[in-house]
């Protein structure tokens, strides 16, 4: 058993690829930014602590040199600093306590001043910040206060106190990493927020691009299918995807070449077939006329030649007219066509034939009823319907034009009183060259109703032919202008 890959639309495949790439990129970037955020903040904090420690070391020089730090004004200021309430709000993070701890040691590493007033007199000589600083090196350390709490680490940075170029003590500024954690958390949330929003925006753009790509391919696919079925199809246009527009032009050019060849072959075949009958009649009549005949028979066969010649001329004219119509994909001249006025002109033109057959012709339409389309083509189609009704209406019968309109469109119906169309012929009466015998036994070109159908389709409508009581009704349904 052969396994087949499921058929997934190209647009969905493109979007899935975009989604994976965007999600992976967003995750990697956000993780990198977040991982770099913490050490960057700590480096910035340490740099600030270095400046602060050196400033305090300069300010504390005289008090430490005179061994009067405990009674000095500097010590009082240090104590007051540790007790201040800043009541600050930094980037939506509240700050209600001083997080810096400052302590000063003498040159033996003994704490002689503490802003928190808790470790005065203790020996800090072995702590790296004090130990290294008293030896002229950069002293710093990070100490965890609670092994179970990773946020309990405290960063200590010390600066030497100089007097006469000798180190007489150190100043350490300590800051808990917990105090900067709210800013880290806020930054992480901001990174995730904007990363999600930007990813969503990019995905929306990617989705639109994938949808447009898929829809463009669907248009080309539908266009190719319609061409394959021989249907009229308007070439799709693409403003952004010029490659698709190039392909669309190539398909149209191929269709025109194929259609032209097939069109000529079909018309040559059908024209040859349809011309056989009148040519045979003309040839037979001409052969008979070459023999001695009475005057009456001579006129009869001469009339046959004239009638069949007229039939061939009508066939050729109709074919040329229909060929021009079938090549049109859209209307060239569009205007509002008043129905009542047009039907009045058509019935007036047929007045002689109506009188000759004693036909009662009525028009049920109002001046307000109209359609939007090509006036010439619509009038020609209605002339064809009138001729068709006159050919099949019973002597002293009735032809009735009825126009009905609603919100969806307008329906033009012509009824001719006479025999029904045989059931076998009803689905085929609009086919090219298909015709039924008239009352006089003659057949038409079989192109009239096909022409009417082509005009209706060009206007976005349809033609319906039905047997109704006492006759036949042909209806053209057109959309509302």
From TrEMBL:
Catalyzed reactions: ATP + protein L-histidine = ADP + protein N-phospho-L-histidine
Q: Which Pfam families match?
A: HATPase_c, HisKA
Localisation = Cell membrane
UniProt keyword Ion transport present? no
Q: Where are the transmembrane segments?
A: 12-30, 191-211
One GO molecular function term of this record is:
phosphorelay sensor kinase activity
> Might you give the EC number(s) for this enzyme?
2.7.13.3
Q: What is this protein called?
A: histidine kinase
Native source organism of the sequence: Ferrimonas aestuarii
Question: Which gene carries the instructions for this protein?
Answer: creC
